[in-house]
């Protein structure tokens, strides 16, 4: 995928900033700057024709859908969900469709010709569906930067949106304290799980704790994945001995033949083991828009907020909406080890790290 196409959504939004929200002016500018038949110009043509935002506009084969897919590819390379999916696929399901969910392993029998197929009495089925929920990100910058034509301006705007969205998406997926809110946010895959608590920080203790993860794991190790914070993964690599031989580090790797991915969205000290094939995922893409005629509420990092008028300060905002949801099909297909390398002061350090992460995601 060309880098240029990954920037289509951001350039579309920046073109609206340059045109001060005038769609006809933005279309004329896009045609002059990127070409009459560019994806950016086509998006603005659709806006003039009355195409509205939302999942209907970013699914299918239109210009908004194409731009969403290009941007989504860049986002998935940074998010925990995308990194897991790249090594072991989730159970991707269509949105809003009732599906049969197996809550136990399917039975298999040799069957004589003409005889009915047997089903194990213990095999049960539930029905469920996934509705994409909306994760929203707003990044604020100077109007001059967002209106600039320089490639560096495009890269800065893209990087800020990707970093904030990937971090919050990953944290929401992995944080055991992240409870779901009906029609707002899915619960993390680790929420409500009884964790294995670290018994120590030496190689023998870590090996024993990981063995406990395996003992209670109901998924398949053939498709299983470990996930941790890069700092936790790097500290594992420093242990030496048999643990170091498991070959992982700050960029991931594998343990005992099981894929290992890393993300800043995983709490320091946590180690996840999951079978993605037992986790339902529906992903309806992303959309990006812009505004400079808005008042935004800003988290001051100290349990307070303040209001900022963008127009008064010559600022502009890029707004991203991410449509995604997940559901754990089999609870025993996700396991959690907590407290790795957490000293007596580690709890406060972890809390501070997570607070900074939340502030960064809300920027």
What does this structure look like?
This protein has 12 helices and 14 strands. It is of the alpha+beta class. The chain folds into 2 domains: 1-76, no CATH class; 90-102 and 120-363, no CATH class. The strands form 4 sheets. Strands 5-14-9-6-8-7 form a 6-stranded mixed beta sheet, sandwiched between helices.
Summarize the structure.
The protein has 363 residues and is an alpha+beta fold. It has helices at residues 3-6, 8-18, 23-34, 39-48, 63-76, 80-87, 143-147, 151-174, 203-215, 230-237, 241-244, 346-362; strands at residues 91-92, 99-102, 125-128, 133-142, 196-197, 225-228, 253-255, 258-262, 271-274, 279-291, 295-299, 305-309, 315-328, 334-338. It has 2 domains: 1-76, no CATH class; 90-102 and 120-363, no CATH class.
Give me some keywords for this one:
single chain, 363 residues, alpha+beta, 2 domains, six-stranded mixed β-sheet, four-stranded mixed β-sheet
């Amino acid at each position: 995928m060309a880098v240029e196409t990954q920037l289509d959504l951001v350039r579309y939004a920046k073109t609206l900033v340059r045109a001060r929200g005038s769609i006809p002016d933005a279309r004329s500018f896009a045609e002059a700057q990127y070409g009459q038949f560019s994806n950016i110009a086509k998006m603005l043509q659709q806006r003039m024709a009355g195409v509205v935002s939302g999942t209907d506009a970013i699914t299918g084969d239109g210009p908004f859908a194409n731009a969403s897919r290009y941007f989504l590819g860049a986002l998935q390379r940074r998010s925990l969900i995308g990194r897991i999916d790249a090594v072991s696929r989730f159970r991707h399901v269509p949105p809003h469709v009732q599906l049969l969910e197996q809550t136990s392993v399917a039975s298999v029998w040799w069957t004589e010709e003409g005889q009915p197929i047997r089903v194990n009495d213990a095999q049960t089925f539930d029905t469920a569906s996934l509705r994409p929920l909306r994760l929203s990100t707003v990044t604020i910058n100077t109007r001059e930067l967002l209106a600039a034509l320089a490639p560096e301006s495009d890269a800065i705007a893209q990087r800020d949106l990707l970093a904030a969205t990937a971090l919050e998406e990953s944290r929401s997926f992995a944080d055991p304290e992240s409870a779901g809110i009906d029609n707002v946010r899915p619960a993390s895959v680790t929420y409500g799980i009884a964790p294995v608590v670290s018994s120590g920080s030496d190689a023998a203790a870590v090996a024993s704790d990981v063995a406990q993860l395996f003992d209670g794991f109901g998924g398949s190790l053939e498709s299983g994945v470990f996930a941790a914070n890069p700092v936790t993964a790097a500290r594992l690599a420093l242990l030496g001995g048999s643990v170091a031989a498991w070959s992982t580090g700050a960029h991931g790797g594998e343990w005992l033949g099981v894929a290992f991915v890393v993300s800043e969205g995983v709490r320091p000290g946590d180690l996840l083991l999951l079978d993605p094939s037992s986790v339902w995922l529906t992903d309806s893409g992303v959309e990006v828009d812009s505004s400079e005629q808005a008042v935004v509420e800003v988290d001051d990092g100290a349990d307070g907020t303040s209001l900022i008028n963008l127009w008064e300060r010559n600022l502009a905002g890029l707004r991203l909406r991410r449509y995604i949801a997940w559901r754990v099909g089999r609870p025993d297909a996700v396991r959690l080890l907590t407290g790795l390398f957490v000293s007596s002061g580690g709890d406060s350090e972890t809390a501070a790290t997570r607070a900074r992460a939340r502030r960064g995601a809300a920027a």
